[in-house]
Amino acid sequence: MSRGTAGRPRVVRMSVELPLWRALTGYRILGLAYALGLFALNRHEYAHPLGAALYMGVLTVWTALTWNRVTSAERCTRPFLVTDLAVALTGILLTPLLDTAERIDAGAATLPSIWTCGPVLGLAIKGGWRWAAAGSTLVAVVNLVERGSPARDTVHNVVLVWVASIAIGYIVEVARASERTLARALQIEAATRERERLARDIHDGVLQVLAMVQRRGAQIGGEAAELGRMAGEQEIALRTLIAGGLVPPQRSAAQLAEDAALVRTVAAGTAPGPAPAPPAGPCDVRALLAPHASGRITVSAPGTPVLLEAAAAAELAAAVGAALDNVAKHAGEDAHAWILLEDEPDEVIVTVRDDGPGIPEGRLADAEREGRMGVALSIRGRLRDLGGTAELISVPGQGTEVELKVPRGSENEA
Protein backbone atom coordinates (compact mmCIF):
# COMPACT_ATOMS: atom_id res chain seq x y z
CA MET A 1 0.00 0.00 0.00
CA SER A 2 1.31 3.49 -0.86
CA ARG A 3 0.10 7.06 -0.55
CA GLY A 4 -1.65 8.87 -3.38
CA THR A 5 -1.26 12.52 -4.25
CA ALA A 6 -4.03 13.50 -1.84
CA GLY A 7 -2.47 11.62 1.08
CA ARG A 8 -5.03 8.84 1.07
CA PRO A 9 -4.08 5.17 0.99
CA ARG A 10 -3.77 3.68 -2.43
CA VAL A 11 -3.87 -0.09 -2.77
CA VAL A 12 -1.14 -1.54 -4.94
CA ARG A 13 -1.77 -5.03 -6.21
CA MET A 14 1.23 -7.37 -6.23
CA SER A 15 1.61 -10.42 -8.48
CA VAL A 16 3.41 -13.50 -7.21
CA GLU A 17 3.02 -15.22 -10.60
CA LEU A 18 4.96 -12.80 -12.79
CA PRO A 19 8.43 -14.06 -11.70
CA LEU A 20 7.29 -17.64 -12.31
CA TRP A 21 6.17 -16.86 -15.86
CA ARG A 22 9.46 -15.14 -16.58
CA ALA A 23 11.36 -18.12 -15.21
CA LEU A 24 9.28 -20.46 -17.39
CA THR A 25 10.13 -18.39 -20.48
CA GLY A 26 13.82 -18.72 -19.71
CA TYR A 27 13.47 -22.44 -19.03
CA ARG A 28 11.82 -23.10 -22.41
CA ILE A 29 14.67 -21.33 -24.22
CA LEU A 30 17.37 -23.12 -22.23
CA GLY A 31 15.55 -26.46 -22.60
CA LEU A 32 15.42 -26.00 -26.38
CA ALA A 33 19.13 -25.14 -26.49
CA TYR A 34 19.94 -28.29 -24.50
CA ALA A 35 17.77 -30.51 -26.74
CA LEU A 36 19.35 -29.05 -29.91
CA GLY A 37 22.86 -29.52 -28.53
CA LEU A 38 22.12 -33.10 -27.54
CA PHE A 39 20.72 -33.85 -30.99
CA ALA A 40 23.69 -32.24 -32.73
CA LEU A 41 26.12 -34.45 -30.79
CA ASN A 42 24.25 -37.68 -31.56
CA ARG A 43 22.66 -36.93 -34.94
CA HIS A 44 24.70 -39.64 -36.75
CA GLU A 45 23.51 -42.33 -34.32
CA TYR A 46 19.80 -41.90 -35.14
CA ALA A 47 18.13 -44.45 -37.40
CA HIS A 48 16.45 -41.62 -39.34
CA PRO A 49 18.44 -38.46 -38.67
CA LEU A 50 16.53 -36.45 -41.30
CA GLY A 51 13.18 -37.12 -39.59
CA ALA A 52 14.70 -36.26 -36.21
CA ALA A 53 16.12 -33.04 -37.64
CA LEU A 54 12.71 -32.16 -39.09
CA TYR A 55 11.06 -32.54 -35.67
CA MET A 56 13.80 -30.48 -33.98
CA GLY A 57 13.20 -27.76 -36.58
CA VAL A 58 9.47 -27.77 -35.81
CA LEU A 59 10.25 -27.59 -32.08
CA THR A 60 12.61 -24.66 -32.64
CA VAL A 61 10.09 -22.73 -34.74
CA TRP A 62 7.29 -23.42 -32.25
CA THR A 63 9.39 -22.18 -29.33
CA ALA A 64 10.49 -19.06 -31.22
CA LEU A 65 6.94 -18.16 -32.26
CA THR A 66 5.40 -18.75 -28.82
CA TRP A 67 8.08 -17.53 -26.43
CA ASN A 68 5.98 -14.52 -25.41
CA ARG A 69 2.89 -16.65 -24.76
CA VAL A 70 4.30 -17.80 -21.43
CA THR A 71 5.24 -14.36 -20.14
CA SER A 72 1.88 -13.82 -18.42
CA ALA A 73 -1.22 -15.73 -17.39
CA GLU A 74 -3.40 -13.77 -19.83
CA ARG A 75 -1.39 -14.85 -22.89
CA CYS A 76 -0.90 -18.42 -21.71
CA THR A 77 -4.38 -19.75 -22.47
CA ARG A 78 -5.65 -23.29 -22.00
CA PRO A 79 -5.68 -24.12 -25.78
CA PHE A 80 -2.06 -22.99 -26.03
CA LEU A 81 -1.02 -25.17 -23.07
CA VAL A 82 -2.77 -28.19 -24.58
CA THR A 83 -1.05 -27.62 -27.93
CA ASP A 84 2.30 -27.05 -26.23
CA LEU A 85 1.97 -30.33 -24.35
CA ALA A 86 0.91 -32.10 -27.55
CA VAL A 87 4.13 -30.93 -29.28
CA ALA A 88 6.20 -32.44 -26.47
CA LEU A 89 4.23 -35.71 -26.39
CA THR A 90 4.52 -36.03 -30.16
CA GLY A 91 8.29 -35.75 -29.93
CA ILE A 92 8.41 -38.49 -27.27
CA LEU A 93 6.26 -40.83 -29.37
CA LEU A 94 8.39 -40.15 -32.49
CA THR A 95 11.59 -41.07 -30.68
CA PRO A 96 11.25 -44.88 -31.03
CA LEU A 97 10.43 -44.42 -34.75
CA LEU A 98 13.43 -42.21 -35.49
CA ASP A 99 16.02 -43.55 -33.05
CA THR A 100 17.60 -47.00 -32.77
CA ALA A 101 16.39 -49.62 -30.30
CA GLU A 102 19.90 -49.93 -28.86
CA ARG A 103 20.04 -46.25 -27.92
CA ILE A 104 16.55 -46.37 -26.41
CA ASP A 105 17.44 -49.45 -24.32
CA ALA A 106 20.63 -47.72 -23.21
CA GLY A 107 18.55 -44.86 -21.78
CA ALA A 108 19.10 -42.21 -24.47
CA ALA A 109 17.08 -39.04 -24.11
CA THR A 110 13.92 -38.46 -26.12
CA LEU A 111 13.86 -35.89 -28.91
CA PRO A 112 12.41 -33.00 -26.84
CA SER A 113 14.49 -34.07 -23.81
CA ILE A 114 14.06 -31.69 -20.82
CA TRP A 115 12.00 -29.27 -22.94
CA THR A 116 9.03 -31.52 -22.08
CA CYS A 117 8.99 -30.15 -18.53
CA GLY A 118 8.12 -26.67 -19.87
CA PRO A 119 4.50 -27.45 -20.83
CA VAL A 120 3.98 -29.33 -17.55
CA LEU A 121 5.28 -26.38 -15.52
CA GLY A 122 3.04 -24.06 -17.54
CA LEU A 123 0.04 -26.17 -16.55
CA ALA A 124 1.16 -26.03 -12.90
CA ILE A 125 1.47 -22.23 -12.88
CA LYS A 126 -1.74 -21.66 -14.82
CA GLY A 127 -4.09 -24.17 -13.21
CA GLY A 128 -2.47 -25.32 -9.97
CA TRP A 129 -1.60 -28.81 -8.82
CA ARG A 130 -4.59 -30.51 -10.49
CA TRP A 131 -3.58 -29.35 -13.97
CA ALA A 132 0.01 -30.25 -13.14
CA ALA A 133 -1.01 -33.76 -12.09
CA ALA A 134 -2.95 -34.29 -15.32
CA GLY A 135 -0.11 -33.04 -17.53
CA SER A 136 2.65 -34.95 -15.72
CA THR A 137 0.55 -38.14 -15.80
CA LEU A 138 0.25 -37.90 -19.60
CA VAL A 139 4.01 -37.37 -19.87
CA ALA A 140 4.60 -40.41 -17.66
CA VAL A 141 2.33 -42.66 -19.73
CA VAL A 142 3.90 -41.54 -23.03
CA ASN A 143 7.43 -42.03 -21.67
CA LEU A 144 6.59 -45.57 -20.58
CA VAL A 145 5.13 -46.27 -24.02
CA GLU A 146 8.26 -44.86 -25.69
CA ARG A 147 10.59 -46.98 -23.56
CA GLY A 148 8.48 -50.12 -23.83
CA SER A 149 9.15 -51.19 -20.25
CA PRO A 150 9.25 -49.46 -16.83
CA ALA A 151 13.01 -49.12 -16.64
CA ARG A 152 14.49 -47.69 -13.48
CA ASP A 153 15.84 -44.48 -15.02
CA THR A 154 12.55 -43.84 -16.82
CA VAL A 155 10.50 -44.33 -13.65
CA HIS A 156 12.91 -42.10 -11.77
CA ASN A 157 12.54 -39.24 -14.29
CA VAL A 158 8.77 -39.66 -14.47
CA VAL A 159 8.33 -39.54 -10.69
CA LEU A 160 10.63 -36.52 -10.45
CA VAL A 161 8.58 -34.56 -13.02
CA TRP A 162 5.32 -35.64 -11.42
CA VAL A 163 6.28 -34.64 -7.86
CA ALA A 164 7.99 -31.38 -8.87
CA SER A 165 5.12 -30.16 -11.03
CA ILE A 166 2.47 -30.96 -8.42
CA ALA A 167 4.53 -29.24 -5.71
CA ILE A 168 4.94 -26.11 -7.84
CA GLY A 169 1.23 -26.10 -8.66
CA TYR A 170 0.33 -26.35 -4.98
CA ILE A 171 2.74 -23.53 -4.08
CA VAL A 172 1.17 -21.34 -6.76
CA GLU A 173 -2.32 -21.96 -5.34
CA VAL A 174 -1.14 -21.07 -1.83
CA ALA A 175 0.55 -17.91 -3.14
CA ARG A 176 -2.62 -16.84 -4.95
CA ALA A 177 -4.69 -17.34 -1.79
CA SER A 178 -2.16 -15.29 0.20
CA GLU A 179 -2.24 -12.56 -2.44
CA ARG A 180 -6.03 -12.37 -2.27
CA THR A 181 -5.90 -12.24 1.53
CA LEU A 182 -3.33 -9.45 1.46
CA ALA A 183 -5.33 -7.45 -1.08
CA ARG A 184 -8.45 -7.83 1.06
CA ALA A 185 -6.55 -6.71 4.16
CA LEU A 186 -5.27 -3.61 2.35
CA GLN A 187 -8.79 -2.80 1.18
CA ILE A 188 -10.12 -3.15 4.73
CA GLU A 189 -7.35 -0.90 6.06
CA ALA A 190 -8.10 1.74 3.44
CA ALA A 191 -11.84 1.54 4.22
CA THR A 192 -11.13 1.82 7.94
CA ARG A 193 -9.05 4.96 7.47
CA GLU A 194 -11.77 6.49 5.31
CA ARG A 195 -14.37 5.61 7.95
CA GLU A 196 -12.24 7.24 10.66
CA ARG A 197 -11.88 10.38 8.55
CA LEU A 198 -15.64 10.46 8.06
CA ALA A 199 -16.17 9.92 11.78
CA ARG A 200 -13.94 12.92 12.51
CA ASP A 201 -15.99 15.08 10.18
CA ILE A 202 -19.18 13.95 11.90
CA HIS A 203 -17.67 14.58 15.33
CA ASP A 204 -16.51 18.06 14.37
CA GLY A 205 -19.88 18.97 12.86
CA VAL A 206 -23.04 17.02 13.60
CA LEU A 207 -22.18 15.84 17.11
CA GLN A 208 -21.06 19.29 18.24
CA VAL A 209 -24.30 20.86 17.02
CA LEU A 210 -26.45 18.15 18.62
CA ALA A 211 -24.65 18.61 21.93
CA MET A 212 -25.15 22.37 21.74
CA VAL A 213 -28.87 21.95 20.95
CA GLN A 214 -29.23 19.61 23.93
CA ARG A 215 -27.57 22.05 26.35
CA ARG A 216 -29.43 25.12 25.10
CA GLY A 217 -32.73 23.28 25.05
CA ALA A 218 -32.32 22.21 28.66
CA GLN A 219 -31.53 25.81 29.65
CA ILE A 220 -34.49 27.34 27.79
CA GLY A 221 -37.05 24.75 28.89
CA GLY A 222 -40.53 24.17 27.49
CA GLU A 223 -40.73 22.84 23.95
CA ALA A 224 -37.03 23.59 23.52
CA ALA A 225 -36.29 21.12 26.31
CA GLU A 226 -38.08 18.37 24.40
CA LEU A 227 -36.13 19.31 21.27
CA GLY A 228 -32.92 19.18 23.31
CA ARG A 229 -33.84 15.74 24.66
CA MET A 230 -34.41 14.43 21.14
CA ALA A 231 -31.09 15.95 20.02
CA GLY A 232 -29.37 14.19 22.92
CA GLU A 233 -30.87 10.84 21.89
CA GLN A 234 -29.70 11.35 18.32
CA GLU A 235 -26.23 12.27 19.58
CA ILE A 236 -26.02 9.02 21.56
CA ALA A 237 -27.26 6.99 18.58
CA LEU A 238 -24.75 8.67 16.25
CA ARG A 239 -21.87 8.12 18.67
CA THR A 240 -22.82 4.46 18.89
CA LEU A 241 -22.88 4.28 15.09
CA ILE A 242 -19.39 5.79 14.86
CA ALA A 243 -17.99 3.56 17.60
CA GLY A 244 -19.37 0.46 15.88
CA GLY A 245 -17.83 1.41 12.56
CA LEU A 246 -21.15 1.20 10.69
CA VAL A 247 -22.30 3.47 7.89
CA PRO A 248 -26.00 3.48 7.01
CA PRO A 249 -26.43 2.02 3.51
CA GLN A 250 -28.86 4.70 2.42
CA ARG A 251 -26.20 7.44 2.78
CA SER A 252 -22.87 7.32 1.02
CA ALA A 253 -19.59 8.58 2.47
CA ALA A 254 -19.62 11.61 0.17
CA GLN A 255 -23.17 12.52 1.21
CA LEU A 256 -22.34 12.25 4.91
CA ALA A 257 -19.27 14.44 4.39
CA GLU A 258 -21.47 17.04 2.65
CA ASP A 259 -23.90 16.90 5.58
CA ALA A 260 -21.08 17.49 8.04
CA ALA A 261 -19.77 20.45 6.00
CA LEU A 262 -23.28 21.94 5.82
CA VAL A 263 -23.76 21.68 9.60
CA ARG A 264 -20.42 23.38 10.21
CA THR A 265 -21.42 26.17 7.84
CA VAL A 266 -24.77 26.72 9.59
CA ALA A 267 -23.17 26.59 13.03
CA ALA A 268 -20.70 29.29 11.95
CA GLY A 269 -23.59 31.55 10.96
CA THR A 270 -22.83 31.70 7.25
CA ALA A 271 -25.01 30.98 4.25
CA PRO A 272 -25.29 27.37 3.11
CA GLY A 273 -23.10 26.39 0.23
CA PRO A 274 -20.32 24.05 -0.75
CA ALA A 275 -17.32 23.98 1.59
CA PRO A 276 -14.34 25.77 0.03
CA ALA A 277 -11.42 23.60 -0.98
CA PRO A 278 -8.14 24.22 0.85
CA PRO A 279 -5.71 26.39 -1.11
CA ALA A 280 -2.74 24.78 -2.78
CA GLY A 281 0.81 25.44 -1.61
CA PRO A 282 2.18 26.34 1.83
CA CYS A 283 -0.03 27.93 4.47
CA ASP A 284 0.89 29.95 7.57
CA VAL A 285 -0.25 27.99 10.61
CA ARG A 286 -0.26 31.19 12.69
CA ALA A 287 -3.17 32.53 10.64
CA LEU A 288 -5.22 29.40 11.40
CA LEU A 289 -4.55 29.49 15.15
CA ALA A 290 -4.91 33.26 15.64
CA PRO A 291 -8.77 33.26 15.64
CA HIS A 292 -8.73 31.09 18.79
CA ALA A 293 -7.22 33.95 20.83
CA SER A 294 -9.60 35.38 23.42
CA GLY A 295 -9.73 36.39 27.06
CA ARG A 296 -9.48 32.75 28.13
CA ILE A 297 -7.18 31.47 25.37
CA THR A 298 -3.65 32.75 24.83
CA VAL A 299 -1.92 32.06 21.53
CA SER A 300 1.89 32.27 21.39
CA ALA A 301 3.60 31.92 18.01
CA PRO A 302 6.92 32.88 16.38
CA GLY A 303 7.32 36.24 14.70
CA THR A 304 7.99 34.64 11.31
CA PRO A 305 5.54 32.57 9.23
CA VAL A 306 5.22 28.89 10.13
CA LEU A 307 4.56 27.21 6.79
CA LEU A 308 2.92 23.84 6.15
CA GLU A 309 1.10 22.43 3.17
CA ALA A 310 -2.50 23.69 3.20
CA ALA A 311 -4.05 20.27 3.78
CA ALA A 312 -1.68 19.45 6.66
CA ALA A 313 -2.14 22.89 8.20
CA ALA A 314 -5.94 22.55 8.05
CA GLU A 315 -5.83 19.13 9.74
CA LEU A 316 -3.50 20.46 12.44
CA ALA A 317 -5.78 23.45 13.08
CA ALA A 318 -8.79 21.12 13.26
CA ALA A 319 -6.99 18.97 15.85
CA VAL A 320 -6.26 22.10 17.90
CA GLY A 321 -9.93 23.08 17.65
CA ALA A 322 -10.94 19.64 18.89
CA ALA A 323 -8.57 19.97 21.84
CA LEU A 324 -10.06 23.39 22.72
CA ASP A 325 -13.57 21.92 22.46
CA ASN A 326 -12.56 19.34 25.04
CA VAL A 327 -11.21 22.11 27.28
CA ALA A 328 -14.51 24.02 27.09
CA LYS A 329 -16.55 20.88 27.66
CA HIS A 330 -14.59 19.20 30.45
CA ALA A 331 -12.60 21.99 32.14
CA GLY A 332 -15.48 24.44 32.38
CA GLU A 333 -16.20 27.89 30.97
CA ASP A 334 -13.84 29.59 33.45
CA ALA A 335 -10.81 27.49 32.49
CA HIS A 336 -7.90 29.10 30.70
CA ALA A 337 -5.98 27.58 27.83
CA TRP A 338 -2.62 28.33 26.25
CA ILE A 339 -1.60 27.50 22.65
CA LEU A 340 2.12 27.41 21.89
CA LEU A 341 3.27 27.13 18.27
CA GLU A 342 6.88 26.04 17.66
CA ASP A 343 8.65 26.03 14.30
CA GLU A 344 11.33 23.32 14.23
CA PRO A 345 13.51 22.44 11.21
CA ASP A 346 11.95 18.99 10.78
CA GLU A 347 8.51 19.43 12.29
CA VAL A 348 5.85 21.83 13.54
CA ILE A 349 4.80 21.47 17.19
CA VAL A 350 1.61 22.83 18.71
CA THR A 351 1.01 22.49 22.45
CA VAL A 352 -2.44 23.07 23.97
CA ARG A 353 -2.48 23.34 27.78
CA ASP A 354 -5.28 24.18 30.20
CA ASP A 355 -5.64 24.71 33.95
CA GLY A 356 -8.66 22.47 34.34
CA PRO A 357 -9.14 19.55 36.73
CA GLY A 358 -7.29 17.10 34.46
CA ILE A 359 -8.39 13.72 33.15
CA PRO A 360 -8.71 10.79 35.58
CA GLU A 361 -6.62 7.74 34.71
CA GLY A 362 -8.44 5.38 32.35
CA ARG A 363 -11.06 7.95 31.36
CA LEU A 364 -9.92 8.15 27.71
CA ALA A 365 -10.24 4.38 27.26
CA ASP A 366 -13.72 4.48 28.80
CA ALA A 367 -14.69 7.34 26.48
CA GLU A 368 -13.67 5.35 23.40
CA ARG A 369 -15.74 2.39 24.54
CA GLU A 370 -18.70 4.72 25.08
CA GLY A 371 -18.36 6.07 21.55
CA ARG A 372 -16.92 9.46 22.49
CA MET A 373 -14.14 9.57 19.94
CA GLY A 374 -12.96 13.21 20.24
CA VAL A 375 -9.41 12.42 21.31
CA ALA A 376 -9.15 9.13 19.43
CA LEU A 377 -10.33 10.41 16.04
CA SER A 378 -10.39 14.23 15.94
CA ILE A 379 -6.92 14.54 17.49
CA ARG A 380 -4.87 11.34 17.32
CA GLY A 381 -6.47 10.14 14.10
CA ARG A 382 -5.73 13.40 12.28
CA LEU A 383 -2.10 13.45 13.37
CA ARG A 384 -1.61 9.79 12.50
CA ASP A 385 -2.88 10.41 8.95
CA LEU A 386 -0.34 13.23 8.65
CA GLY A 387 2.48 10.98 9.83
CA GLY A 388 2.72 12.86 13.10
CA THR A 389 1.97 12.14 16.74
CA ALA A 390 -0.36 13.41 19.45
CA GLU A 391 0.72 13.01 23.08
CA LEU A 392 -1.67 13.74 25.93
CA ILE A 393 -0.36 14.37 29.45
CA SER A 394 -2.85 14.92 32.24
CA VAL A 395 -2.47 14.99 36.01
CA PRO A 396 -5.66 15.18 38.11
CA GLY A 397 -5.90 18.66 39.60
CA GLN A 398 -3.11 20.11 37.44
CA GLY A 399 -4.72 20.42 34.01
CA THR A 400 -4.11 18.72 30.69
CA GLU A 401 -1.48 19.20 27.99
CA VAL A 402 -1.77 17.99 24.39
CA GLU A 403 1.34 18.07 22.21
CA LEU A 404 0.80 17.80 18.44
CA LYS A 405 3.73 17.14 16.12
CA VAL A 406 3.54 17.27 12.31
CA PRO A 407 6.67 16.36 10.28
CA ARG A 408 7.72 18.56 7.41
CA GLY A 409 8.02 17.27 3.85
CA SER A 410 10.42 18.30 1.13
CA GLU A 411 7.67 20.28 -0.57
CA ASN A 412 7.07 22.24 2.65
CA GLU A 413 10.74 23.15 2.96
CA ALA A 414 10.75 24.36 -0.64
UniProtKB/TrEMBL annotation:
It holds the Pfam family DUF5931. InterPro entries: DUF5931, HATPase_C_sf, HATPase_dom, Sensor_HK_TwoCompSys. Keywords: Kinase, Membrane, Transferase, Transmembrane, Transmembrane helix, Two-component regulatory system. The chain crosses the membrane at residues 20-40, 46-67, 79-98, 154-172. Residues 311-410 form the Histidine kinase/HSP90-like ATPase domain. This is DUF5931 domain-containing protein. It comes from Streptomyces luteosporeus.
